[in-house]
Amino acid sequence: MIRTLDLYKDYSSTRALNGVDLTVDSGSVYGLVGPNGAGKTTLLGVLSGLRSATAGQTEIGTDRIAMLPDTPFFDPWLTAHEVVALAHSMSGSTDVARIDELLELTGIADAADRAVGGFSRGMLQRLGLASTLVGGPQLVLLDEPCSALDPLGRREVLDLITRLRGEATVVFSSHILADVQEVCDTVGILREGTLIFQGRLQDLLVGHAVPRYLVRLRGSVEPVINRLREADWVHDVAVLDPEMIRVTAGSLEVAEAELVAVLAGTGAHVVSLVPEAPSLEDVFLEVVQ
After folding, report:
1. Is this prediction's pTM over 0.85?
2. CA-CA distances (angstroms) from residue 125 to 192, 197, 209, 229, 272?
3. What is the DSSP letter of 43?
4. Averaged in consecutive runs of 10 residues, what is the pLDDT profile of the chain (289 residues)?
């Protein structure tokens, strides 16, 4: 659906995008993450056609594109229904039932006849999402779609994005890494305008995070902690509760070979030993630092 080649974007003396080669498969949900100022909003702007690249090539597999900016704004005298109906009329879609459907799906049906000038930031975000999706776009670009929403609103938006998988291609940027991990199958990490990782989320989680293990013991954990801290392959031992510790190792291979032996050598009563699945936040901090 999307392919860019050696994409650059300069603002005066500032380089916002630095040779980005982006690939987004049709029907996927692609999460774009990175620190503030990494170039996420600029990249979405170039993909949507709202900004021009300084150099490079951009190929988009459809002309049915819709984008939700991070701070959507609408004429304050329009009602919510009128805003979505206007977006629908501009899309060329003939499915007018979609207007009320999107108002319902985004949780603002009860406010459909209210002027949007009195809407909160969260309600404007919901309205923006309804307006973005009402025309049935094949490519949906979302810039921080959950940033102003309460937990219930975030849950509804994430569920809606999940339902779009396979029906449309979604690219969304977010600083809420848990959201990206929940709904995305592919992730790209931007740092200072450079795409430093792109690939399947599972490949990122497996390929970068340091190995950690949760060990539950019966009885005192002190002898085990002392023995583990003597091992040069152990980076850290954290006490989570009186009978639970987290062991961070420097190498997966060494940890698999040595951890059980160390535990057995202490005579500890091991209730459970399980690897701790890395989170996107853990990996993100490791990659960008």
Report:
1. no
2. 27, 29, 33, 49, 45
3. H
4. 97 94 95 90 95 96 93 94 95 88 92 94 92 94 87 86 90 87 90 91 68 84 87 86 85 80 86 76 69
